[in-house]
Amino acid sequence: MATRQTHHRSALALSLACALMLPLAAHAQSDSREQQLEQRVAQLEQQLNELKAMIQAQKAAPVQPAAPAQAVAAAPAPAAPVFSSAPGVSVALHGFVSASAFSQSKSFTYGNGQNALFPVPGSSGSLSGVDVRNTRFWLDFKGAQFAGNWSGGGRIEMDFFGGFNGTGPYSQQQPTPRLRQAYMDLTNPESGTTVRIGQQWDLMFPIDNSPTSLAHIAFPLGFGSGFGGWRFPGVVVMQDLNHGSTGVQWRLDVGAFEGTWNGPGNNVNYLTAGNAGFRPQVEARLHVQDKNWLAYFTAHYSKVDLRGVGGTASTPIRSGVNSTGYEIGGQWKPGPWTFKGLAYTGNGLGQVFGAMSQFGDIKERGGFVQAGYGFTPNWGLYAFYAYSKPDSKDVIAWMGNGSTGLLRNRQTALSLQYTAGSYDLSAEWMHDKLDSTSNGTDRKTTTGNQLSLNALYRF
Length: 459
Fold this sequence. Notes:
The chain is of the alpha+beta class. The protein folds into two domains: 1-63; 98-458, Porin (Beta Barrel), CATH 2.40.160. Helices cover 16% and strands 43% of the residues.
C-alpha cells in the first residue's frame, strides 16, 4: 500500500514538473523566432542601404551615350519576309490590283482603257469597258552576300499588258502577263554605291517623278507626249556623292542600255538599226533630293545605223541618226500641295517613246506639269497638263520612213482621289488634242476624251 502511494506521488510530481516546463519552453522558442526576425530585418535594411547608395552613385555619374549595339537592339524588329529562298535571302511579294471602268469618245493610240495615250487621228465612235491590266506584282530579293562589303538583291516585276490569249470573243477577258523589270543589285553601304544589272527603266524615265493617276499607271499621263523613257536591259551605276552626310543628298547615275530602233530588221531578234554593231544607249543623271523636294538633270546619247545589221538596208533620207536628249525635272511638296514637272528637248528619241513614238532624225521639245492638293488625309485633287511638239519639217520629211505625221499634242487631266489604308479610289477625266497630217500638206485636229472610275488595292 505504501509502495503504491509512493509511485502515485512520483507520477504526480513528474506531471507537475512537465506542466511547469511547458511555458518556459514556449518562451524560449518565441525568443528564438524573434531573434531570427530581427536578423532578417537587419539584412533587409542593409540591402536597402546598399541599393540607395548605388542609385545615388548612378545619379552622380556622367551620362554615357548608348553603344551602337544597344541602339540596334532597341530598334523595332523588321517585318518578317513573306518567304525565303537561299540561306540568308528574304523574298517579299508586293503589288497592287487595279480596275478602271471607262468611257471614251474616240479610240486611242496603243489601246483603249488603261493604256490610252492620245487619240487615233480621224477616229470616231464612243466606247466603254472595264480594264484591269494595270494590275502588277513583283518579288524583291534581299540579303545575298557577294564579296567584302558588297551585298546583293534584285527584283522581278510583271503586269498584264502582254496582249491577250488569242483574238476570239472571250480573249479580252484573258490578258497576258508581261515582264517589266528583271534586275540584280550589288550594293556597298560603306561607299554608297549600287550597281544594277538587268532590264530596268532607263534614266530618261522619271521613275520617282511620274504623274499621279489611278487610271494611267503602266502608261502614265503624258507618256510619249510630254516625256519619254523605256525599260531596257543594261547596267546602271548609282553613286552617292555626299554619302553619310545629312541634309541635301546628291547622287550620280550612269547607265548603258541595249541599243534598239524600229527596223529595218526583225524588232524581236536584235536586228534593228540600234543593234547594228556595238551601239548602246548611254545616259547620265544627276539627282539631288531633300526632305520635301527633288530635282534632276538627265542626258542621253546613242548612234543608230539605219543600214541595219549587215549594212544592206536602203536609206532614202540618211544612213544614220545621232539620238540625243536632255531633260530637267523636279518635285516639291509644301504642306498639303504637290507639284511635279519636267521639260525636255532632243532629236531621234523614238526608241524612248519620243516624238509620240515616231522614228527618224526628228527634233522635238515638250514637258508636263501637275499640281495636287490634299484637302484632308484622305481626299486629294490633281490637275495635269502635257505638251509635245516635234519639228513639223522633220516629221514630214520622215513620213513613210518612221514618221506617222503626228505634229503636236496637248493633254489635260483632272482627278479626284480618295485614299484609305491600302485602298485608293478616283474619278478621272482626260482630254487630248492632237494635230496631224496625212500627206504633208493637209492638217487635221483630233480630240478625244476619257472618263474613268478607278479602284486600286495595294499589297
